[in-house]
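User: Let's play a game. I give you a shape written as tokens, and you guess the letters that built it. Ready? Here's round one.
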């Protein structure tokens, strides 16, 4: 087994997916280690999660920079200081510049609360309810320059019930997020998951548009 992969996680809030990945590493469920956590906001609970696990963290506020480009340039430097093999977006509420995405191409993952390509952007749970969908879910994907548009690696589906409010649906989706994100990170750390020609590849096999094992 090769050495553990170095993982950096970017957050903007509570960090529940960060916790799921930290726990998977601690339980030796994947050959990786979270070596750094970066947040664009101070005083978020995700930073407390990092501190509780003795993981280094950096706060880099976007409000301190005149442009998105200036911010992302400094963010690249801050991430590179941790020498990551993998960069994981876990509720990082920033639209990233092309330069940032290109710098980390093929080692940048995101999780999005919808069954992509449906409902890119915000308010996905309410949009699924408003559309009368019978199922909703979550997608883990490689990040490309298209917002929420990179190749899907894995999805999990949940039912939508007639009485659901957005918070009910969000809770159901969160439960699945905490299951599939560590699994995808595991595949990457095991050198099974790559991106080639803007396609997700698992065990050298191209995944479908909806990711692995999607019915």
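Assistant: Ready! My guess for every position:
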């Amino acid at each position: 087994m090769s050495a553990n992969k170095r993982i950096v996680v970017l957050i903007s809030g509570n960090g529940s997916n960060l916790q799921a990945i930290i726990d998977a590493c601690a339980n030796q469920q994947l050959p990786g280690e979270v070596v750094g956590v970066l947040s664009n906001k101070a005083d978020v609970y995700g930073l407390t999660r990092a501190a509780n696990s003795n993981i280094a963290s950096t706060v880099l506020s976007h409000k301190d920079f005149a442009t998105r480009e200036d911010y992302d340039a400094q963010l690249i430097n801050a991430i590179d200081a941790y020498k990551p093999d993998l960069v994981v977006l876990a509720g990082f509420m920033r639209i990233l510049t092309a330069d940032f995405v290109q710098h980390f191409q093929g080692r940048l993952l995101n999780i999005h609360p919808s069954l992509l390509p449906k409902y890119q952007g915000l308010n996905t749970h309410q949009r699924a309810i408003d559309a009368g969908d019978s199922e909703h879910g979550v997608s883990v994907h490689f990040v490309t320059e298209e917002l929420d548009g990179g190749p899907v690696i894995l999805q999990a589906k949940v039912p939508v019930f007639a009485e659901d409010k957005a918070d009910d649906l969000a809770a159901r989706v969160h439960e699945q997020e905490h299951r599939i994100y560590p699994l995808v990170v595991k595949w990457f750390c095991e050198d099974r998951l790559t991106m080639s020609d803007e396609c997700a590849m698992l065990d050298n096999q191209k995944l479908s548009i909806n990711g692995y094992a999607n019915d």
